[in-house]
């Protein structure tokens, strides 16, 4: 196909992937853009991004990438009019990606990699070969291995998707078996303990960069994975001052290739924030569900069901998460308990103004987030 180069500049107009239907390969031309160094596009999209458009159209504004929105940037292609269908795809980046633990998150990573044709091989690694073969049948991975050391020996990227209590052990085993130039990341929802344990030099000089995708479901297993799980969702990466910047950039690029928006935080700031936005909400949902007597369960409606949905999450997994981050969780519970006390006080004293104020603040914060 003909390859044309042209420049791009940043523009705030956005198109979502829902406005950008797929284009038959036989009807497209390839355009490679060069972004100005000051725009930041090189760091976000990379120099190998390909924009495919029908030959009868010229693009003006795109804010879609592999395969969804790019939050802060949009390459404005200096041609008009706006295409009615276009998409941006990534050139293949990885030769072999190994996923340790092919459940909901690991399975969704595999599907997103294969959807975008981002890797030559996607290897699922775990102890249960029956589950791994199911993942292969579902198209989540191309290869499977029941032995960790064997599964990662050719990988240039390894993503550890196991429960938080076993991540450190798995990362160390991976580092001892994978190629020297390989990168390792994880998906654990606590970071301080893990990063502190792995901040020392790993065997073979392999680099670990902590990650936490803020995406998921109360459901588990690769059969519940889907390829767009990370589209438009936030992934937090937690490098330390000793983490090589080149490794951080590659991990950031990896998550952006899967459709995510990436933010950097220190492990401590991550754990403090996630205690408020994820861990305490799970405790609250569980407490509400557990405090509802069995004889009343036939009477619950959507309010109870929506509020307690996340209480259906894996108990063993959440026990580990909450214990790993218990210091920040306890501090967040203190603040939540003060709010409950204020609600109770307003009801006991018959002060509707205070009650209304708390309800209004809750509504404002919830409405800000949206659906």
Which features characterize this protein?
single chain, 371 residues, alpha/beta, Rossmann fold, 6-phosphogluconate dehydrogenase C-terminal fold, 6-stranded parallel beta sheet, 12 helices, 18% strand, disordered N terminus
Describe the structure.
The protein is of the alpha/beta class and 371 residues long. The protein folds into 3 domains: 87 residues, no CATH class; 172 residues, Rossmann fold (3-Layer(aba) Sandwich); 100 residues, 6-phosphogluconate dehydrogenase C-terminal like domain (6-phosphogluconate dehydrogenase C-terminal fold, Orthogonal Bundle). 40% of the residues lie in helices and 18% in strands. The protein contains 12 helices and 16 strands. The chain has a 6-stranded parallel sheet, with helices on both faces. Helix 3 links the parallel strand 9 and strand 10. Helix 8 crosses helix 11 and helix 11 crosses helix 12. The longest helix is centred in the C-terminal third of the chain and has 25 residues. The N terminus is likely disordered.
In brief:
This protein is an alpha/beta fold and 371 residues long.
Strand content: 15-25%
The SSE string, one letter per element, is EEHEEEEEEHEHEHEHEHEEEHEHHHHH
Our measurement of the CA-to-CA distance between the termini, rounded to an integer number of angstroms, reads: 42 Å
> For the record, what is the CATH homologous superfamily label of the largest domain?
NAD(P)-binding Rossmann-like Domain
Structural class: alpha/beta
DSSP, total strands: 16
CATH topology of the largest domain: Rossmann fold
Report the C-alpha radius of gyration, rounded: 23 Å
How is the main sheet built? 6 strands, parallel
How many separate structural domains? 3
Overall pLDDT: 79
The CATH architecture category of the largest domain equals 3-Layer(aba) Sandwich
- Shape estimate: globular
Q: How helical, in percent, are the residues?
A: 25-40%
- Unreliable stretches: 1-88
CATH class category of the largest domain:
Alpha Beta
């Amino acid at each position: 196909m003909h390859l044309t180069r042209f420049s791009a500049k940043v523009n705030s107009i956005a198109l979502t992937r829902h406005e950008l239907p797929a284009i038959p390969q036989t009807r497209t031309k390839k355009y490679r853009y060069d972004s100005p160094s000051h725009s930041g596009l090189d760091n976000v999209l990379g120099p190998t991004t390909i924009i495919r458009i029908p030959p009868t159209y010229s693009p003006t504004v795109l804010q879609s990438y592999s395969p969804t929105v790019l939050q802060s940037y949009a390459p404005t292609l200096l041609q008009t009019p706006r295409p009615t269908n276009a998409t941006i795809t990534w050139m293949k980046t990885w030769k072999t990606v190994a996923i340790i633990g092919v459940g909901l998150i690991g399975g969704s990573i595999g599907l997103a990699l294969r959807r975008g044709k981002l890797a030559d091989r996607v290897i699922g690694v775990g102890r249960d070969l029956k589950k791994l073969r199911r993942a292969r049948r579902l198209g989540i991975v191309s290869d499977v291995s029941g032995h960790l050391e064997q599964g990662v020996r050719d990988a240039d990227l390894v993503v550890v998707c196991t429960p938080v209590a076993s991540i450190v052990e798995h990362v160390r085993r991976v580092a001892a078996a994978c190629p020297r130039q390989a990168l390792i990341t994880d998906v654990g929802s606590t970071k301080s303990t893990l990063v502190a344990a792995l901040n020392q030099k790993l065997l073979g000089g392999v680099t670990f960069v902590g990650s936490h995708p803020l995406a998921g479901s109360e459901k588990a297993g690769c059969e519940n994975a889907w390829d767009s799980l990370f589209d438009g969702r936030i992934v937090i990466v937690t490098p330390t001052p000793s983490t090589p910047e080149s490794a951080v950039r590659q991990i950031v690029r990896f998550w952006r290739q899967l459709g995510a928006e990436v933010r950097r935080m220190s492990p401590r700031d991550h754990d403090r924030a996630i205690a408020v936005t994820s861990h305490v909400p799970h405790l609250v949902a569980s407490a509400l569900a557990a405090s509802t007597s069995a004889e009343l369960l036939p009477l619950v409606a959507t309010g109870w069901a929506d509020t307690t949905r996340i209480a259906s999450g894996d108990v063993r997994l959440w026990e580990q998460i909450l214990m790993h981050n218990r210091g920040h969780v306890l501090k967040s519970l203190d603040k939540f308990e003060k709010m409950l006390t204020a609600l109770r006080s307003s009801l006991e004293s018959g002060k509707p103004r205070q009650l209304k104020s708390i309800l209004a603040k809750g509504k404002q914060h919830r409405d800000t987030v949206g659906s």
